[in-house]
Amino acid sequence: MTGTAIGGNFELTDHFGKPVTQANYEGRFALIFFGFTHCKLVCPRALTRISEALELLERQAEHIQPLYVTVDPERDTPQVMRAFLEERWPRFIGLTGGRDEIEAMRSAFKVFATKVADPDNPDGYDMPHSSLTYLMDPHFRYRAHYPDTMEASQLTEELRRQLTQFPDGSE
């Protein structure tokens, strides 16, 4: 993704129903994953991997706020996001919003997601999406992205390197 601007300003709603912008997350690194609560495999696996990596970071994890941004705002209300995250992935803040706000966020991060018909799904559709994890510095500037295939231990080492190299987000 070299040469392509990643990230930017946003206005969304967190899973507590409060309006938030990127400024709410400045001061800490942000680890961002895009997905949806009805995802059966990719999202639960990614959220678990990210959570395990943060556990391995121990106290350094205090410098990182993981964010889970929906690609399915029609189903993922703040209440649905909160119920989905609270029990299994409590470190995460879920972010949702209107279709236009989510589309702007997806576009800013170059995230692919599309609604496809799925007769086996009770809602009649699924949302295939890209599965990268993005790291933003404490000024909410893009630092790195990590593939879904990266193991938790590898992600931990990458995050540790980023935290050590740019502890305050400066260059």
Automatic annotation (TrEMBL):
Record's keyword terms, sorted: Copper, Disulfide bond, Metal-binding
Keyword Acyltransferase: no
InterPro entries from the UniProt entry: SCO1/SenC, Thioredoxin-like_sf
Keyword Disulfide bond tagged: yes
Molecular function terms, GO-annotated: metal ion binding
Disulfide pairings: 39-43
Residue numbers binding Cu cation: 39, 43, 129
Superkingdom, taxonomy of origin: Bacteria
Family recorded in the similarity comment: Belongs to the SCO1/2 family.
Name of this chain's protein: Redoxin domain-containing protein
